[in-house]
Write the structure tokens for this entry.
Amino acid sequence: MKKSVLVCRAVFPDIVDRLREHFEVETNEPDIVWSRDELIAHLQGKAGVFITGTQPIDAALLDACPELKAVCSMAVGYNNVDLPACTARGVLVSNAPDVLTETTADFGFALMMATARRIAESEHFLRRGEWTKWSVEGFAGSDVHGATLGVLGMGRIGQAIARRGALGFGMKVIYHNRSHLSAEIEADHKAHYVSKDELLRQCDHLVIVLPYSKESHHTIGAAELALMKPTATLTNIARGGIVDDAALARALAARQIAAAGLDVFEGEPSVHPDLLKVPNVVLTPHIASASVATRLAMADLAADNLIAALGFGPNAGKPPTPINPEVLRR
Ligand code: DGY
């Protein structure tokens, strides 16, 4: 009898077909966001689960689903998965790194540019029928070329943003990260390490690309925003919760910083109501990795991981991107 797996959200049919070559597959075609209890009910009897970045997988859920052996996510961020709990129970977890790096960096750069050049704000003005004359200072924003780009979190996506800034737009790139990058990587990206406070003080455009964890919760709050230039912009493509959205809304309303571009929010899909009231913010619904090719590649990689983790396909027993590979060695 085939093993059973669950695909938590609606995904491309080709991906489901690939999984069906090896497994009994339960899908969620109507794309319902299941409650925790519904998720546990759907997971009964399943050996593996294909998740996205939003289904919470924790110790209590694992205990309620003892047959689960593989949790494979199509997201790169895995703050929704309790990794130690999975490892302790011998459950393999995988994510989807690399395949989304360039697409996500494209979007981060686009959001930063839209924020700096006030694209959304001016489009709303035009759509409201308020454009009656051209004016010298109309929606004058700040330059991106030649400005100082501050990257907070210099992993793969942070580095891809730094490359765009340094090599494409002649920006001065400074970064802050848990660790210094090697001199070689710094040279390739024309990037200089600075303390977090210096990053905030010096940058014209801050782009946040940190992974979310208890430690990175509210890395940017009122005190940090107060260090930034009044002309600076802030772009968050990382995770909601890294920025204190209420404090950011206050800083934007008071013009303590010039503008923000946000793709992720605390408690999304809810958005802090004060962010909806301020004009100087560009808001997008967590779509940084959303090109068709990249979402397909992410889903494909999650399927590769699930198939291999449960012992099938050309990589049987060797999923390509495990996060807790120690489980495989047991
Ligand atoms: C990721 O891959 O982590 C994106 O944010 C989508 O969840």
Remarks:
- The CA atoms of residues 56 and 80 lie 5 Å apart.
- The first helix runs from residue 13 to 20.
- The pocket of (2R)-2,3-dihydroxypropanoic acid is lined by residues 53, 75-77, 100, 289 (CB under 6 Å).
